[in-house]
Amino acid sequence: MVFIKYILPALAASQLAFASSDCGDTTIENQSDASGISSCSTIDGDITIKSTYSGSLDLGSIEKIEGTLSCNGGSNVTGITAASLESISGNFTLKGLTTLTTLSFAKLSSVGAIDWEVLPGVNSLDFTTGITEVGDVNIIDTHLTSLDGITLKKVGQLDITENSYLKSCNISNLEYATGQINFQGNYDNLEIDLPNLTNGTSMTFRNISSINIPKLKSLTGQLGFWNTDFDVLYAPDLTETGDVVFTGNTKLTNVSLPALKTVDGGISISRNDKLQEIDLPKLSTVSGAIDLTGNFYELKFGALTRVDGAFNVESSNGTFSCSDLKSEYKSDVRGSWTCKTNDSNPTTSNGKSGTESGSSSSGGSSGSTSSSVAMANGVAAPVAGVAALFYALAQLV
Ligand SMILES: *[C@@H]1O[C@H](CO)[C@@H](O)[C@H](O)[C@H]1NC(C)=O
Ligand SMILES: *[C@@H]1O[C@H](CO)[C@@H](O)[C@H](O)[C@H]1NC(C)=O
Ligand SMILES: *[C@@H]1O[C@H](CO)[C@@H](O)[C@H](O)[C@H]1NC(C)=O
Ligand SMILES: *[C@@H]1O[C@H](CO)[C@@H](O)[C@H](O)[C@H]1NC(C)=O
Ligand SMILES: *[C@@H]1O[C@H](CO)[C@@H](O)[C@H](O)[C@H]1NC(C)=O
Ligand SMILES: *[C@@H]1O[C@H](CO)[C@@H](O)[C@H](O)[C@H]1NC(C)=O
Ligand SMILES: *[C@@H]1O[C@H](CO)[C@@H](O)[C@H](O)[C@H]1NC(C)=O
Ligand SMILES: *[C@@H]1O[C@H](CO)[C@@H](O)[C@H](O)[C@H]1NC(C)=O
Ligand SMILES: *[C@@H]1O[C@H](CO)[C@@H](O)[C@H](O)[C@H]1NC(C)=O
Ligand SMILES: *[C@@H]1O[C@H](CO)[C@@H](O)[C@H](O)[C@H]1NC(C)=O
Question: How far apart are alpha carbons 284 and 281 in whole angstroms?
Answer without folding.
Answer: 9
